[in-house]
Write a structure and sequence with these properties.
There is one protein chain. The protein is an alpha+beta fold. It is built from 10 helices and 28 strands. Strands 1-28-27-26 form a 4-stranded antiparallel beta sheet, with no helix packed on it. Strands 2-3-4-5 form a 4-stranded antiparallel beta sheet, with no helix packed on it. Strand 12 and strand 13 form a beta hairpin. Helix 9 (218-250) packs antiparallel against helix 10 (278-291).
Length: 632
């Protein structure tokens, strides 16, 4: 078995080296699981692979020993929730020796080997809180004998510690719940704060422990997925250029004319033919989407607007409860869930971004002072990096784990100081920012490297005399959509080339979002909301019955749910609206106390049939709604 393990580790190491050869983005093993999940997920999966292998080889004695040691694992496969459950089980059974032994084991085997040395000062603070929690629980359960036993075992080591001054009398106080020294520790708020701090600490430590080479088994899977996406994108590009070349050759006797023509080498390199007509591109895309296995097959869209024939949908969610988050002093501009749904980031024209915990109602975790109006927010989907766009031409990248500013980027053109939107490419390599000037008469699209945070290029914008209010990537990052102040919607390919545009609204386009790979949802300041099929943009597929956005704000947005069947949108009234993507009328409203500017929602960590929806209002408040899907 030892020889097999050596071979497996050597093989995994070779896979790790091969990353650089095929161009897989470099990522430190100590910061992120190769599968994109938690370290605990990888450890659990690796354990199951080992168990399966041992059974396959007939190593039954080794299998039994491994299974027994796995059950006794104090790290619980590096899953914070399970480690806390183990520690608290010792507290709740008054098993002080096991509690102390387990904490000492974690400190020696896990905490001190982590690469996050800056967090080690938190160990002593959490050690103090854990012991105090044990004492408080003993008295809460009317068991002062266990509290006296605590001081008999540990008293000699604590007597000279100033943090324990006054605590030796705790077992003998008649009513500790009302005593000035101890009453705060009996409150639910202190206990929840301790739980959250311990959870955050363990999660950060576990994500930053050096992993053995064996746990890189997910890299090969990630390489294959990336290569498949790259092949699909390149095939799309080859077919598009072939179609455009044929179109240009057929019309070579006519002078080229295109609404996308430009002098930029990004759009038309010397060796590339210019786009000659928009219908040809639309025709190409329609044929290409029908041929591609990765896209759904489309029926031909007729000239008439397609009316949905499905029956009216009953309200799909029960609104179980709502929590109000107060703290901003001006109108909300954006609110976004973190990738796990455990946090909400909200921004405002007061120049402040606040990060809130969704597990503790109204509890603020971090405050980011930007000293300028905050216009855009976006979380990096595989980590806890928050991108913040401001009114003074800056993009701040905040690390929600360390609660520190990672980098402060400045836009290229200082005159384009309003960072209206930030979109991160799902491929994980780049992100795009939309910047405009103060009177919204000129704008630019900037391409950035997501790994190094270096500026890479300027995407072509024609005409320049407009404001780009919203940008959105499709699900695989091969297309980028933009919505502009002239009502035009534009689509770019993965190489920064514009491939189509159409007039989607009679006024400003406030929000664009891809619904799948071939449909687009758009919202205009004229109060109209459309669903488009990008293979035929002459007419919208569906126009929604919508009551209108908040007139004074450009940040009203559309957000799809995890299934892609429903979307949430703010409104000028005191609620947000839930729509089924194929039904023109709202199926449900989620109440707020003022006009709703920004919304977001996600699956809840509590279960598969529960959702969380957040809405931000001009009345300075953020409301978190807990929804339960009916019929699940």
């Amino acid at each position: 078995i030892g020889t097999w393990m050596e071979k497996f580790i050597k093989f995994a190491s070779e896979l790790d080296k091969d990353r650089k050869y095929i161009g897989t983005p470099e990522r430190s093993r100590s910061h992120q699981s190769p599968l994109g999940g938690s370290v605990g997920d990888d450890v659990t999966y690796a354990d199951e692979l080992v168990r399966e292998y041992l059974l396959f080889r007939g190593f039954n004695q080794t299998f039994r020993t491994f299974s027994m040691e796995r059950k006794a694992d104090r790290t619980r496969s590096f899953q914070p929730d399970k480690v806390i459950e183990l520690l608290f089980s010792f507290v709740h059974t008054f098993n002080l020796p096991q509690l102390l032994e387990t904490w000492a084991y974690l400190n020696e085997k896990v905490f001190v080997v982590s690469e996050r040395k800056d967090l080690l000062h938190s160990v002593s603070r959490l050690d103090l809180s854990l012991k105090r929690y044990y004492l408080i629980y003993c008295l809460h359960k009317a068991n002062p004998d266990k509290a006296r036993e605590f001081f008999e075992i540990l008293g000699e080591g604590l007597v000279e510690n100033p943090n324990w001054s006054g605590w030796f009398m705790l077992p003998f106080v008649r009513s500790p719940q009302t005593h000035e020294t101890f009453k705060a520790y009996f409150t639910k708020n202190w206990q929840e704060t301790f739980y959250q701090s311990l959870h955050n600490f363990l999660a950060t430590i576990f994500q930053n422990i050096p992993l053995p080479a064996m746990l890189n088994f997910g890299i090969e899977r990630a390489k294959r997925k990336q290569l498949e996406d790259e092949i699909q994108t390149l095939q799309l590009e080859v077919d598009m250029r072939r179609q455009l070349h044929m179109s240009a050759s057929a019309s070579s006797s006519r002078p080229p004319s295109s609404p996308l023509s430009t002098n930029s080498s990004l759009i038309s390199p010397p060796s590339s033919p210019a786009v000659s007509s928009m219908p040809n591109v639309n025709s190409y895309l329609q044929n290409r989407i029908k041929k591609s296995d990765s896209y759904p097959r489309l029926h031909d869209i007729k000239d008439e607007i397609v009316e949905p024939t499905m029956k009216a949908i009953e309200p799909p969610w029960n609104i179980k409860s709502q929590d109000t988050y107060s703290g901003h002093s001006a109108a909300i501009t954006k609110c976004r869930f973190s990738p796990t749904g455990a946090e909400i980031a909200s921004s405002s024209t007061d120049g402040i971004v606040r990060v809130w915990s969704t597990r503790t109602a109204g509890r603020r975790q971090s405050t980011i002072a930007c000293n300028a109006d905050v216009l855009s927010l976006s979380w990096e989907p595989t980590s806890r990096l928050l991108f913040v766009g401001t009114d003074d031409g800056k993009i701040k990248v905040w690390n929600a784990v360390s609660e520190k500013l990672l980098v402060d980027l400045k836009v290229v053109d200082k005159s384009l100081s309003r960072v209206m939107d930030i979109a991160l490419n799902p491929s994980g390599n780049t992100f795009v920012s939309s910047c405009t000037n103060t009177n919204h008469s000129k704008s630019s699209l900037l391409l950035w490297d997501l790994k190094t945070f270096e500026f890479k290029d300027v995407l072509p914008v024609e005409p320049e005399q407009l404001s780009i209010n919203s940008i959105s990537f499709n699900n695989n990052g091969s297309m980028l959509a933009t919505g502009s102040s002239d009502g035009t919607i534009r689509i770019y390919d993965s190489h920064c080339q514009p491939i189509m545009s159409w007039m989607g609204h009679d006024s400003e386009c406030l929000s664009v979002v891809f619904a799948g790979s071939s449909h687009l949802l758009t919202l205009g300041s004229d109060g109209k909301m459309h669903k488009w099929d990008i293979s035929n943009t002459q007419r919208s597929v569906l126009t929604y019955d919508y009551e209108g956005p908040v007139r004074s704000h450009r940040t009203t947005d559309i957000r799809l749910d995890a299934s892609g069947n429903y979307f949430l949108v703010g409104s000028q009234n005191s609620h947000s609206c839930i729509y089924h993507i194929n039904q023109s009328h709202p199926v449900q409203y989620v109440n707020h106390t003022g006009p709703v500017v920004s919304v977001d929602w996600c699956k809840s960590f509590e279960g598969t049939n529960t959702y969380q929806a957040v809405s931000g209002s001009t009345n300075h408040t953020v409301i978190l709604s807990h929804l339960e899907k009916q019929g699940d």
